[in-house]
Amino acid sequence: xxxxxxxxxxxxxxxxxxxxxxxxxxxxxxxxxxxxxxxxxxxxxxxxxxxxxxxxxxxxxxxxxxxxxxxxxxxxxxxxxxxxxxxxxxxxxxxxxxxxxxxxxxxxxxxxxxxxxxxxxxxxxxxxxxxxxxxxxxxxxx
Length: 142
What we know:
0% strand; single chain; 2 domains; mainly alpha
């Protein structure tokens, strides 16, 4: 039994998500968000929704998170949220919206976040190819 604390539910959800126990993780994210919504919990729940082809729910979570200010306990940057939303749009086949978020996210990504930069590089290439744009058109090209 997890104490009725948003932080405890969030931590339990993250552990369950890592163990690929998504339904249980989802329930704990729901409880965490019910008690105290954070950008981090909304982003992680959106990731689960997206993997389960529940893109409308995933987009709603990311949109809500983008309207919030960062939470000290669980930081989640705009760059991370935009990457999540771009991934959701790509899964839906909406490459134009994904490209918009990729370009916006690349402007805010810290230069030392190699994992996020790698995602944006691959997403930029994917979106451009799917839209018939030169593979290196956009803000991330070198």
